[in-house]
UniProtKB/TrEMBL annotation:
Keyword Disulfide bond: no
Protein name: LysR family transcriptional regulator
Keywords noted in UniProt: DNA-binding, Transcription, Transcription regulation
Family annotation (InterPro entries): LysR_HTH_N, LysR_subst-bd, WH-like_DNA-bd_sf, WH_DNA-bd_sf
Gene Ontology molecular function terms on file: DNA binding; DNA-binding transcription factor activity
Family the entry assigns: Belongs to the LysR transcriptional regulatory family.
Pfam families the UniProt entry points to: HTH_1 (PF00126), LysR_substrate (PF03466)
Organism: Deinococcus radiophilus
Gene Ontology CC terms: protein-DNA complex
């Protein structure tokens, strides 16, 4: 049973005349008559009664008409959803992210994506970088947001934005009165930081920078999440070196100071190598579009770069 045969039958039922129905669907009358007879043969019962003046539906034909209309409507809706899926306007996207990104970047990306494509379902999963890589390989998530580097050859990555490190200090700390700091200024200070297994890439990059400056940070307290570490800074337990967008947290008792020559941390989107689809492209496009204004929130970044 072909959709064009259903269209021919509906036109005949609504026009009640073979000639007018044929003109309506742009076929010759013989072709339309053949379509209707083919339907009747397939259904196994007469659908119309024919006369020289008018065509009328049989009781079976009236029932078939209702179903034919529903079938065509469903087919058209399916085609439209398929086309919209090809444009990245419908579907489901599962996004993995490292926890800190909820304070910079991720909320803006999701909000714009939902406004622009309300029929795209977005599921968020907070995962470490290693967990995201495993979830990408197994297909449990579609795209991940994490920090470089990504070494797995089965994955592709695109840098979305870069953030310098800043110094988070207790408001009463003597260094808080200075507008800018150098990494050497922090030698001998107490630090709070993540355990290495929690943020290995971030941890190693910070420790390498400090080592190049001639000292190893004295970590006196560890914490698993950025708000926890900033609370420890507020309590004057030690200082912390977060990525600059964590200034958005506005933690009471904490001040942030730019660091001369601070390394830039790349935040990247990661997906399975070879994956090509419009929904992923839409996500990456929205991410690139909305992250520019975020970078401009803190003027010292341009100087740091």
């Amino acid at each position: 049973m072909e959709l064009r045969h259903l269209r021919h039958f509906i036109a005949l039922a609504e026009e009640g005349h073979f000639g007018r129905a044929a003109e309506r669907v742009y076929v010759v009358q013989q072709a339309l008559s053949s379509s209707v007879r083919r339907l009747e043969d397939e259904v196994g019962v007469p659908l119309v009664t024919r006369s020289t003046r008018r065509v009328e539906l049989t009781p079976a034909g009236r029932e078939f008409l209702a179903g034919a209309r529903e079938t065509l409507t469903l087919a058209e809706q399916t085609l439209e959803r398929t086309r919209r899926a090809a444009r990245g306007e419908v579907g489901h996207l599962t996004v993995g992210f490292v926890g800190g990104l909820v304070f910079g970047g991720l909320p803006e990306i999701v909000r714009v994506l939902r406004e622009r494509s309300p029929d795209v379902g977005v599921e968020l999963r907070e995962l470490s970088a290693a967990e995201q890589e495993a979830a990408l390989r197994s297909g449990q998530i579609d795209v991940g947001l994490m920090l470089l580097p990504v070494r797995d050859p089965a994955l592709e990555a695109r840098a979305l934005w870069r953030e310098p490190l800043v110094a988070a200090l207790p408001a009463a700390h003597p260094l808080a009165g200075r507008e800018r700091l150098h990494i050497h200024d922090l030698a001998g200070e107490d630090f709070v930081f993540f355990p290495r297994h929690q943020r290995a890439t971030y941890f190693d990059q910070v420790m390498r920078w400090c080592a190049e400056a001639g000292f190893s940070p004295r970590v006196v307290q560890e914490g698993l999440e950025v708000p926890t570490l900033l609370s420890l800074v507020s309590a004057e337990v030690g200082m912390f070196l977060p990525i600059s967008f964590f200034q958005r947290l506005g933690m009471q008792g904490v001040v942030y100071r730019p660091l001369e020559g601070a390394p830039l941390i790349d935040i990247v989107a990661v997906w399975r190598r070879g994956r090509k689809d419009a929904l992923l492209d839409e996500f990456l496009g929205v991410a690139a579009e909305v992250l520019g204004p975020i970078r401009e929130e803190f003027p010292q970044k341009a100087k740091a770069k």
